[in-house]
Amino acid sequence: MVKTCRLIFFVAFLSYYHAVLSQEELINRGLSFKIQSSIHKTLYEDYPADRNPDFELARDSKLVQAKISSSYQFNNSIALGAALGWEQIEFQNQQLGYYPIGLNFVLFPFDRPGKGFSNNIQFGTHLGDLDHPGLFLSTQLEYHLPIFRYSSIFIQFGYSIRKFEKKFVGSQRPDGLYNIQAFGIGVGLDIFIHYPN
């Protein structure tokens, strides 16, 4: 978890550094809506040989995600909102789907309209067929390209960690506890509703 926090603060610093260098005027206030999808590579777990491999993370396991989010941009430093998504993890011979829901923080958002970086940090829990919903924490660095005056497409690079309990029939995993880390890449659409200053 310490390494996760360090990575998140490092990405936030990069976004802040970009914002300082750009020396833009005060960013317009407004409401942002995002639709995005991404694919992630999960980190491999070296599990004991006596466990059923069907319910473990393999070296080629991956996580796919679709998400919608909305946030209100207050100023040059932060936007706050909420996010709801769908995720599916592929174990060796089993799939698990659920719905992450949480708070959305955008640090040092870029000046609109225009090109720019932004950093999303999301924290929340999970809904769905889980024995214990657990928590998740994720960060994404996004680069936006305008397609209309207040709309943009973006590419994102992200890191996330999620912890929950799911007891599969036939699994020897203790307590059904999963602690999954993943790196991913995604694309999305951002629509911004401008509120005059």
What this model shows, in words?
The protein is mostly beta strands. It has one domain (2-22, 31-195): Porin (Beta Barrel), CATH 2.40.160.20. 11% of the residues lie in helices and 58% in strands. It has 1 helix and 8 strands. It has one helix spanning 2-22, and strands spanning 29-42, 62-73, 78-90, 95-107, 116-127, 132-148, 151-165, 177-195. Strands 1-2-3-4-5-6-7-8 form an 8-stranded antiparallel beta barrel.
Q: What is CATH's topology name?
A: Porin
CATH class descriptor: Mainly Beta
Q: Quick one: overall form?
A: elongated
Largest sheet: number of strands, sense, barrel closure: 8 strands, antiparallel, barrel
Tally the beta strands.
Answer: 8
Count structural domains: 1
User: What gap, in angstroms, lies between the N and C termini?
Assistant: 39 Å
Order of helices and strands: HEEEEEEEE
Structural class comes to: mainly beta
Low-confidence stretches: 15-24
